[in-house]
Amino acid sequence: MIAFAILALLTVVGAIAAMSLRNLVHCALALTLAFAGLAALYLQLDAQFVGFAQILIYIGAVAILIVFAILLTRGSEPPQQSILSPSWLGGIAVAVIVFGVLAAMILRSSVTHRREIAASAQASVGLLGEQLMTKYLLPLEVMGLLLTQGSSKRQVSTEKRHVSFGICCLGFLWCLDPGCWSFEAFRL
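RE: above sequence
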């Protein structure tokens, strides 16, 4: 319980700092802190795949990309503004109102009044990997090929890019179709 409170506080403080600070680099680093707290919460809840995906994708890619983009595009002049935004009181008021509305809706929901809790399926990263490499191997391979082709830098003209993006979208929709998961459609 204490670990959850510390991680929740870390996440909330990082999110509030990301919204309220004026320096973009500080905002991006605070957002990284919020992402790290959220990943730690996922790991504490035994959702290893989501936690590690949060670390790899949001902290390792998105947050670092934001920091690099800010550092490469901003000027060298120092900021002349205060650290906090001048309209922070209005932002806090809106946040409190939105929080109150969401809390009231959640408390009135029928989901919070359920008596019995259904047993959750035990899933792990190993089980997910096993399913991806056995049952869902064909859609995984198709998606890998389509994403590789779609993100290739060898496309020269604009028309080719639109065609390859369309092929990627069609392949993604094909993989989302529940009927494509069986090999029955491929038998002669």
